[in-house]
Design a protein that fits this description.
With about 160 residues, the protein is α+β, with helices and mostly antiparallel strands. The protein has 3 helices and 11 strands. The strands form 2 sheets. A 6-stranded mixed β-barrel has the order 3-4-9-5-8-7. Strand 3 and strand 4 form a beta hairpin. The chain is globular. About 10% of the residues have low confidence.
């Protein structure tokens, strides 16, 4: 009986610890968002690495995204591209933090981050890209106003 209780407690602690770690990596599971007359905005909190990671919808499917002002365009992991049925277009070479890699052109119908939505976004499918699922590059970010201060990033879309 004690063994069963100890195993149950260990299982519960494991679940709680997993949730704590996930919250530290992505504090924006449900980002603060608002809309006003002619705009929509999302406020993201920096994670422990001072990066902005958030939950988003890519073609209506949940994905984890990282705001990456150093990326020229949106990059999608191969596993997410397969899950969404994104076609692999023409190959091209990209420069990454780990060196050069081959990527494949694709098109995303919709990227939604809270109330912000962009449609028909050009993207690159990048094999061997690990977490997060998507890097939000400048072809997405340049359509928004960005204000970063004190561990927060506000993204605003004017309509």
């Amino acid at each position: 009986m004690i063994l069963v209780a100890a195993l149950g407690a260990l299982g519960l602690l494991t679940l709680l610890f997993d949730q704590l770690i996930a919250g530290q990596r992505n504090p924006n599971q449900r980002p603060l968002s608002s809309t006003g007359d002619g705009y929509a905005e999302v406020t993201l909190q920096a994670n422990r690495q001072d990066s902005y990671v958030a939950a988003a919808l890519i073609n209506g499917s949940e994905a984890e995204v990282l705001v990456d002002t150093g990326a020229t365009q949106v990059a999608v992991s191969d596993s997410l591209a397969r899950r969404l049925g994104l076609p692999r277009g023409a190959p091209f070479t990209v420069s990454t933090a780990n060196g050069s890699a081959t990527a494949y052109q694709t098109q995303i119908t919709s990227i939604r981050l809270g109330p912000i939505e962009l449609r028909d976004v050009s993207a690159a499918v990048v094999p061997n890209m690990r977490s997060p699922d998507v890097l939000l590059g400048m072809n997405f970010l340049r359509e928004l106003e960005l204000v970063q201060s004190r561990g927060q990033l506000v993204l605003r879309q004017y309509q």
